[in-house]
Amino acid sequence: MSTLARPDAFDWTLVRSFLLVLEAGSLTAAARRHGLHQPTLSRHVAELEAQLGAPLFERTGRGVRATPVALAMADAARQMRSASQALSQAVAARRESLSGTVRLATSEVAAFYLLPEVLVTLQQAEPGIQVELVVSNTVSNLLAREADIAVRMVRPAQATLVARQLAELPIVPCAHRDYLARHGTPQRPEDLARHRLIGFDQDDTILRGFARMGLPLGREAFALRCDNQLAASALLAAGAGIGFAARYALPLLPGVVPILPQIAIPPMPCWLAVHRELRGSALVRRVWEHLAEAIPQVLARRELRSPVPD
């Protein structure tokens, strides 16, 4: 029985090292020419010789001399190298030519204040990818294919979804400097009861937060009530009163500054989610990878630009 390894058992890494040594004439020259370690090349050649059951090189004072077995397999090895290069080029070309549409769901605030920068860099990196941005504060059902990917502030509960938490988003009480100049800056949480507050209409999240702080305020404590967070942000920017906002949005609300740093509001988690089956799509996976990398980068830049508490 032949001791030669099956052709499909050859490790391309070993064959590549064999070619480098063959063409350079010595282990030292091959290592120097290609920026590799000589012991690594020597080990690869020895492993390939063990697989073949025959020596490939004879050591000489000036380097190595190819054996008949090495010369016989040289052309086939070069064909393997050409095929490997062609495969790499095909993969690179495929990556460069990704095209198609990905449907991305997110909340109003994230769509307005967070994702524009992220999607600009995606378009620059992948001009062939089109994005349909689904803006809604209701959690889109990825299982029903209402979206391909979702950026959400709650953890997806479905077991068939792949999810990754990207960040914790601080929420801060804040107001425009013009409002604070007119009405003063509150120094303690209980001072808020004497100010014009901006809060939700039907949603009781802020009221429950006040209750946990020992401030049992009622709905009537809000001089301005609105469940639309973009409208609430506009009211803050106009100097209408004191409200609450994600800190990453403040650099995009000129003049709005955080106040009362002693109030510890639980941060919102930022989750990226996709259906497990769609994760196998090269197109969806590329957008997922970009979002996972770019969102934390945008948030980090916003932290550097975020105004300090008054």
From TrEMBL:
Ranges for domain HTH lysR-type come to 10-67
Q: Which Gene3D superfamilies match?
A: 3.40.190.290, Winged helix-like DNA-binding domain superfamily/Winged helix DNA-binding domain (1.10.10.10)
| Protein's GO biological process | DNA-templated transcription
Alphabetical list of InterPro entries matching this protein:
LysR-type_TF_proteobact-type, LysR_HTH_N, LysR_subst-bd, WH-like_DNA-bd_sf, WH_DNA-bd_sf
Q: Which UniProt keywords apply?
A: DNA-binding, Transcription, Transcription regulation
**Recorded GO MF terms:** DNA-binding transcription factor activity; sequence-specific DNA binding
Transmembrane stretches, start-end? none
Under PROSITE patterns, the record lists: HTH_LYSR
Q: Which family does it belong to?
A: Belongs to the LysR transcriptional regulatory family.
User: What protein name applies here?
Assistant: LysR family transcriptional regulator
Q: What is the lineage of its organism?
A: Bacteria, Pseudomonadati, Pseudomonadota, Betaproteobacteria, Burkholderiales
